[in-house]
Design brief:
Elements lengths: L17 H6 L16 H16 L17 H12 L13
Helix pairs in contact: 2-3
Length: about 100
């Protein structure tokens, strides 16, 4: 997928709603996770939590409003992160159509 293309916001029919979120004041961060074989959860934890902590030091980031989302394998990573740290809030659940 080309992440640099403009995508018309279409909330329920597309997996990547970056234009909608950004136009509503959200910062989108897509991590490049370096996976250790056999350790997907800790690998995601190291990449995402360290990035979230770093981003939370920026004056334009509200650390109390950091969110998390994932689908399929990203859903596993989301569940892992929510259950292994108190730093990230539970994910917002979207309607599946």
């Amino acid at each position: 997928m080309n992440w640099n293309l403009f995508r018309t916001p279409d909330f329920f029919n597309r997996p990547d709603q970056f234009p909608w979120y950004v136009s509503h004041g959200y910062l989108i961060f897509v991590p490049d996770i370096h996976y250790r074989i056999g350790h997907p959860g800790p690998s995601a934890f190291n990449a995402i939590v360290s990035a979230a902590r770093y981003l939370s030091t920026m004056p334009w980031v509200d650390a109390k409003r950091i969110g998390l989302a994932g689908h399929s394998f990203g859903g596993y990573e989301t569940d892992y992160l929510v259950t292994h740290t108190g730093f990230l809030p539970p994910p917002y659940q979207l309607r599946r159509g």
